[in-house]
Request: fold
Amino acid sequence: MVKLNKIYTRTGDNGTTGLASGPRRDKHDLRVAAYGTVDETNSAVGLARLHTSGMRELDDMLFRIQNDLFDLGADLSTPDTGEKLEYEPLRIVEAQATRLETEIDALNAHLDPLRSFVLPGGSPASAYLHLARTVSRRAERLIVELSRRETVGPAALKYINRLSDFLFVAARFANDGGRADILWIPGKNR
Reply:
């Protein structure tokens, strides 16, 4: 179990932060930006959960996702350099992405078919889920960019890609099964 006694350490006052495996990186380093944006995604999911308590099935899924996002942050904060560590680093595994696919299918079974692109909004839960979706897409772009420079596990890439799909379907689910979706009307305001 993680135990944090002291919240500030002053070690980051010079603009660097420590990775889980020890090395320090600049706070603007791509790896730090990637796991920081995963953390931001988690916060957006937390905002959505303020409005999903009446949707037990969805709220339980979102709670699992919040835990997974901490796993993903731990994975990204421990670079795979090929060197043996003194501990087994936490990594996202294929089963986490597969679970998202199963949950997407379960939620999607309750939705009306799409007739147009969906604008973010409708219910508060849906609006926040769309926000979480867009933040997760930014996290994905950063993680993919990182994967072109350093090792990132394929399950981590798959998970973050599947997450935005889940959040889109969840946003529709939270909008009365898609019936309260706000649809894009191309050229409406010309």
Remarks:
- Residues 124-147 form the longest helix (24 residues).
